Amino acid sequence: MENNSIWKTTALAAMIIVMGPLLGYFTTSEYVRALGIDYIERGNQVRRHRDIIEGRAGNPWQYRVLAPYLINSAVKFFENFRISYSISSVFIFFRLIQDTFVMHLSYAYYRKLGLSLSYALIGMALLAWSISYSHYDSDLQFNTFFDVIFYLLAGLSILQGRFIWIFPITLLAAFNRETSILIPFLPLLVSVFALPKKSLRKEITVFSAAIVTYAAIFIGLRLTYGNQEVLIPYGRQPGLDLLQYNLFRAVTWQQLIATLSIIPIVAIIGYRKWPLQLRVFFWAIVPIWFVIHAVGAVMAEARLFLVPQAMVFIPGALLGLAQSHTSAFRRADHAHDKHDIH
Questions:
Q1: How many structural domains compose the chain?
Q2: Does 331 fall in a domain?
Q3: What pLDDT, on a 0 to 100 scale, did the predictor assign at position 336?
Q4: Which ranges of the chain have pLDDT less than 50?
Q5: Under DSSP, is residue 162 helix (H, G, I), strand (E, B) or coil?
Q6: pLDDT reported for residue 189
Q7: Is residue 332 one of the residues assigned to a domain?
Q8: What is the C-alpha to C-alpha distance for residues 273 and 324, in angstroms, rounded to an integer?
Q9: Which of 95, 127, 323, 324 is 20 to 30 Å from 314 by CA-CA measure?
Q10: Can you spell out the DSSP letters for 249-299?
Q11: What span, in angstroms and rounded, lies between the C-alpha atoms of 286 and 291?
Q12: What is the pLDDT of residue 199?
């Protein structure tokens, strides 16, 4: 009996481990298919990478240095050992590793939120499906997927009560993308609204260290690379001009629906069934994320909304459905018991 339990646990662990790279391969291949190898090898992807390394990519790209420098290290590795390769193969393999991490982290995060194994696996699949439709007007977008990784790591650390990990996560995330500014606030808000008051004093120390680190890196990058030309998307100025552009283009809603589908709606319907920590994540991330991207980015590039999709909407929808299913089962079981009594 004990051997059967060990074999079952081993088989489940193996299935989860294998699903990560399989789903990662699926999502990466969808991006590669949409972009084409020729673009990845010789298009804007390579030019932007080289511009960042040379310090002339413009604002904000020049300040998103984590992925380009890691990729550049991989490129130099191949050069030092005189291994035949193409730049596109390095890019694709790097993205495959990122997507695999996203899948495994999402599973761990969903389980920690209280979802069953089967629902957590469904969550992985839903996230992979969302990613596969998020390639509109995109390249391989390494900083976007690092953003998802860092937010999932932050959420997992908070749910495990390991708030101290927010500091190194923020340190790395600040080199990746400016949207990581919300990460230090997550454990602080969870401490205020979801934990006993005595935890707040300890968390303020972690928050202070993390936010100071973020600010130092944010400012340091701008001092290091100097003022860069601000890149204006499609000639639309941030603010009301870009908001109008976003709201009145059919493609905005087509891409958001393709990437997010009805998952946010299902999630919000089940809001009352969420654990308190997830509710805090919702209010800390979702409203400001949508407002900032509505006035400061092109919303049709729906990959920009993968962080709230992975962190909040997918687990929120599944938690609501799981609890509704459990309640329905209990009602049916209770009705059956009453029938037997009579």
A1: 1
A2: no
A3: 46
A4: 328-339
A5: coil
A6: 94
A7: no
A8: 9
A9: 95
A10: -HHHHHHHHHHHTTHHHHHHHTGGGS-HHHHHHHHHHHHHHHHHHHHHS-T
A11: 9
A12: 72
Residue 59 — φ and ψ, nearest 5°? -90, 120
Residue 326 lies in a domain: no
Taking the C-alpha atoms of residue 158 and residue 221, their distance in angstroms, rounded to an integer, is: 28
d(CA 44, CA 58): 14
- Beta bridge partners, 230, equal 59
Residue 338, in any domain of the structure: no
Put residue 272 in one of left, alpha, beta given phi > 0 → left and psi -120 to 50 → alpha.
alpha
Residue 318 vs residues 56, 222, 268: alpha-carbon distances, Å:
44, 41, 11
Instruction: List 59's β-bridge partners, or say none.
Output: 230
DSSP state of 56: -
Contact yes or no for 252/300 (Cβ under 8 A): yes
Environment class of residue 337 by beta-carbon count within 10 Å: exposed (0-12), middle (13-18) or buried (19+)? Answer: exposed
Which of these, 21, 64, 68, lies nearest to 46 by C-alpha position? 68
Question: What is the DSSP code string of 217-241?
Answer: HHHHHHHHH---PBPPGGGPPTTHH
Nearest to 101 by CA among 148, 64, 156: 148
Contact 274, 320 (CB under 8 A): yes
SS3 95: helix
Output the six-digit token pair for 296.
């400061």
Which domain range does residue 281 map to? 2-319
